[in-house]
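Box 3.1 A note on notation
Throughout this textbook, protein chains are presented in two layers. The first layer is the amino acid sequence; the second is a token string describing backbone geometry. Keep the layers aligned when reading.
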Amino acid sequence: MHDTFTIKKPWITEKAGIMSADGKYVFVVKNGASKPEVKKAIKAIYKVDVVSVNMVNRPAKTKRFGAGRTGGQQGFRKAIVTLKKGQKIDLN
């Protein structure tokens, strides 16, 4: 499997924007992705040096809609990537 398919998309939120000032960027990744896979993919896509990778699993959530009907939000996995000091990624 190609490394670039490990990263699904950048996670753009207010908190992620604040973290980017410290050189930390958040990405939604494939559910089975490991830290070394994410590190290799970020290095290949953005041409930056990755210092560390932290993984967060966000569980699925059940939602109710009116008369007893239920649906849900799918769970996903996020990677918080810390870059070498002085480097940055332009996500715009």
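The first helix runs from residue 14 to 20. The chain has two helices and six strands.
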